[in-house]
């Protein structure tokens, strides 16, 4: 997507620019400011914005309030922490340690939460993956069925670095075979996979983050089954039925409604996938044996391409793209100026040198063949300079 600052932005998995409908609303300056819990007219007006968004989300995702509750929070990291830590804390209160399962390519917030659980006496289990980011369902099921405690499984439907996608039906089968509880990290799903609105009622919780699809930062939402018990991560005034204390971020919540409504009305997943695949074909034709695409033969979403330029450090290539006015990602953030290899790629069996040579390009939900031509011209110029 070409932004107002004339740069080509290819980092949508990191964060998305505000949707036009959100920017138009903010430009009006008619901000909701009152506490939605207040009984006066201004408070009720603020609460109406939250209610309108809640009703839209329940309708969009096809959920009956008899099955799921809706929880607003600050985003993906808080949602993940809430359900994993909250479930473990609830079971520990009942005198049980849990068995927590997650894949070696899960988001860093999942891995950090797993360490938190292990430090408090719970059992954590890492599921290995192959070069396509895939894992063996049967081995996982066998291990889960041998677990001594209640089992919680974090199921990442779309990987943020590689775009590797797992369908919800897979998690359903694992739950049916083991009786485990399943939290779905769906942060990277909206607008990037077919059927992202269709949530399985058989799974226990889903977490989304607003700034990944054009809404404001600092807000996210989750659906969770009413039978899924967890202790709240944040306690205080008892808001949201006691599941998350604190005055709701009404402006951020309403931006979720605006951004999602706009996406539903104008998304073009087929065109996005076609344009991404054509981009990848052009990349492979240009670089030949000097590059590759991560999980190229695996199941991936419609907007993510993770590239390796053999022998070229990603900091060098990212700097070249940056100077050309193109924003790309090099995976995990740098620490003290040192480019660290991606744990995700290392877990998939790539070498440290390959992991240090990877670039992630994540396209706009509205990326198509028309936009591809302009983008490819700029990208190919940089690539040609790097591999010559």
Note down, in words, how this protein is organized.
The chain has helices at 20-28, 41-60, 76-93, 108-118, 137-145, 168-178, 250-266, 269-287, 314-323, 343-347, 352-355, 369-387; strands spanning 8-9, 68-73, 99-103, 123-127, 151-156, 181-185, 205-209, 220-225, 291-293, 304-309, 326-327, 358-362. With 388 residues, the protein is α/β, with parallel strands linked by helices. It is built from twelve helices and twelve strands. The model has no long low-confidence stretch (mean pLDDT 94). The radius of gyration is 21 Å and the shape is globular. The two termini are 27 Å apart. It has two domains: 8-18 and 268-387, Aspartate Aminotransferase, domain 1 (Alpha-Beta Complex), CATH 3.90.1150; 31-265, Aspartate Aminotransferase, domain 2. The strands form three sheets. A seven-stranded mixed sheet has the order 2-8-7-6-5-3-4, with helices on one face. Strands 9-10-12 form a three-stranded antiparallel sheet. Helix 2 packs parallel to helix 7 and helix 3 (76-93) packs parallel to helix 4 (108-118).
CATH class descriptor of the largest domain: Alpha Beta
The biggest sheet amounts to:
7 strands, mixed
Q: What structural class should be given to the helix and strand makeup?
A: alpha/beta
Q: Quickly count the domains.
A: 2
């Amino acid at each position: 997507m070409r932004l107002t600052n004339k740069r080509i932005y290819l980092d949508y998995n990191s964060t998305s620019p505000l949707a036009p409908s959100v920017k138009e609303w903010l430009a009006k300056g008619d901000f909701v400011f009152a506490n939605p819990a207040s009984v006066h007219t201004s408070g009720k007006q603020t609460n109406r914005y939250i209610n309108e968004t809640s009703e839209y989300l329940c309708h969009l995702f096809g959920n009956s309030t008899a099955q799921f509750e809706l929880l607003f929070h600050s985003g993906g990291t808080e949602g993940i922490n809430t359900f994993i830590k909250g479930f473990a804390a609830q079971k520990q209160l009942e005198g049980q340690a849990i068995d927590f399962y997650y894949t070696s390519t899960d988001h860093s917030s999942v891995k950090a939460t797993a360490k938190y659980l292990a430090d408090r006496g719970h059992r954590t289990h890492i599921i290995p993956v192959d070069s396509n980011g895939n894992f063996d369902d049967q081995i996982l099921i066998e291990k889960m069925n041998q677990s001594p405690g209640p089992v919680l499984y974090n199921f990442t439907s779309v990987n943020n670095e590689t775009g590797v996608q797992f369908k919800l039906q897979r998690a359903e089968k694992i739950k049916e075979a083991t009786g485990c509880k399943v939290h779905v990290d769906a942060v990277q799903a909206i607008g990037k996979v077919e059927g992202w609105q269709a949530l399985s009622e058989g799974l226990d919780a889903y977490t989304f983050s607003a700034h990944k699809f054009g809404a404001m930062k600092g807000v996210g939402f989750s659906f969770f089954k009413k039978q899924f018990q967890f202790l709240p991560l944040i306690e205080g005034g008892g808001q949201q039925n006691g599941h998350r204390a604190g005055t709701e971020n009404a402006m951020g919540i309403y931006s979720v409604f605006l951004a999602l409504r706009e996406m539903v009305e104008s998304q073009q997943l087929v065109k996005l996938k076609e344009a991404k695949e054509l981009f990848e074909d052009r990349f492979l034709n240009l670089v030949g044996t000097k590059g590759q695409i991560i999980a190229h033969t695996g199941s991936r979403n419609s907007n993510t391409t993770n590239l390796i330029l053999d022998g070229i450090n990603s900091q060098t290539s990212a700097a070249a793209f940056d100077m050309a006015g193109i924003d790309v990602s090099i995976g995990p953030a740098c620490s003290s100026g040192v480019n660290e290899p991606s744990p995700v790629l290392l877990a998939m069996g790539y070498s440290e040198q390959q992991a240090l040579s990877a670039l992630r390009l994540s396209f706009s939900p509205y990326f198509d063949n028309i936009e591809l031509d302009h983008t490819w011209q700029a990208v190919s110029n940089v690539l040609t300079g790097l591999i010559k």
